[in-house]
Specification:
The chain is α/β, with parallel strands linked by helices. The protein has helices at residues 19-31, 50-57, 68-73, 76-82, 93-101, 107-114, 127-131, 133-144, 170-181, 215-226, 254-264, 307-312, 330-340, 381-399, and strands at 8-13, 35-40, 61-62, 85-91, 119-123, 148-149, 153-156, 162-166, 190-195, 200-203, 206-208, 230-235, 247-250, 270-273, 280-282, 301-303, 319-326, 345-350, 362-369, 372-380. The protein is built from 14 helices and 20 strands. The strands form five sheets. Strands 13-12-9-14-17-18-19-20 form an eight-stranded mixed beta sheet, with helices on both faces. A six-stranded parallel beta sheet has the order 3-2-1-4-5-6, sandwiched between helices. It is elongated, with a radius of gyration of 23 Å.
Length: 400
Amino acid sequence: MQATLKKKILLGVTGGIAAYKSAELLRLLVRAGAEVRVVMTAAACEFVQPLTFHALSGNRVYTDIFDADAESAMDHIELARWADFMVIAPASADFIAKLNQGYGDNILLTLCLASKQPVAIAPAMNQQMYANAATQDNLASLADRGILIWGPDSGEQACGDVGLGRMLEAETLLQELEMHFRPGKLASKRVLITAGPTLEAIDPVRYISNHSSGKMGYALARAAQSAGAEVTLVSGPVNLAIPAGTKRISVNSALEMRDAVMERVEETDIFIACAAVSDYRVEQQAVQKIKKTDDQLQLLLIRNPDIVSEVTAFGNPPFCIGFAAETENLEAHAKAKLKRKNLDMIAANLVGNSDTGFGHDSNELHLFWADGQLHLKLASKQLIAQQLIDQMANLYLAQN
């Protein structure tokens, strides 16, 4: 490992079995050239002794906001000012909830409140705790406020369960830190992303749509912005907060989404078509509510415009990425779509199972481009988005 991380890192450790991984992360950070100070919650001390982190860092370990020695040497305000970056690994469900609510009842939470520097958290908990709606709401809220969410990973857990909730491995967290301090790969680039479903009205109260939640597209917006891009998000109706710093254009129908995209395509460097656009719309929308009369109702449907194909056929098209949600023959269908629509890259996934696709917080993608492919293993949609944006940026920069 080359010494490339000449930064002051504050490593926060909360209570959880994954705290043992924090010791390895500390060792890697020190080897990479970072100066590290460790702050532990009381619960973290039940899993790993502070002496372990003291020995690995060569610095005092902070555990108590009321520690007289700590106050006389470097109080919590000074410690917050000292750090270039804060990473909390592991971040328990309890800590995440308190951080979201602005609690300051231990030294680590107080440091998060007092710091102006970037903060990243690496969630680690039981898979059901991670999937709980309260935890997901807390994470979404923190992400919208600029907190970086690194992970979690999927796999076997200490309790015997299998699923999302494992803390990322120390090597992966180190890579995330190194990437953060590199100049953004997409600095000054203009990225246009579509997300969510479209609604095709039948009458004033009914519509045709699909199960898209918009979570993947919104995760991509956050990841692109983290890479330095100027992001515009053309979004169908979703129940998601706008990622901080992202410009959102709200639309309902496929025609509205098409118009919003084509108005901006000329000033776009990269276009990511993540939205689940309805393939068909009703030829004639009823002005008044259709009354229930006969046992059958026939609707004449007509094709909606193919937004991706229109963008790639543009005179000077941006770098274009499409998505393919498949239920079978994933690779064959994805490669055919890549060629047919003249895309630079396509991201394909299988939908309809219990772990990935519409509405889920996790995903698994297969990326294909003209002369290569990459499998992004099951992980949180935010982590998948970061990996996709990183690979996309590599291809884009190689061509431009």
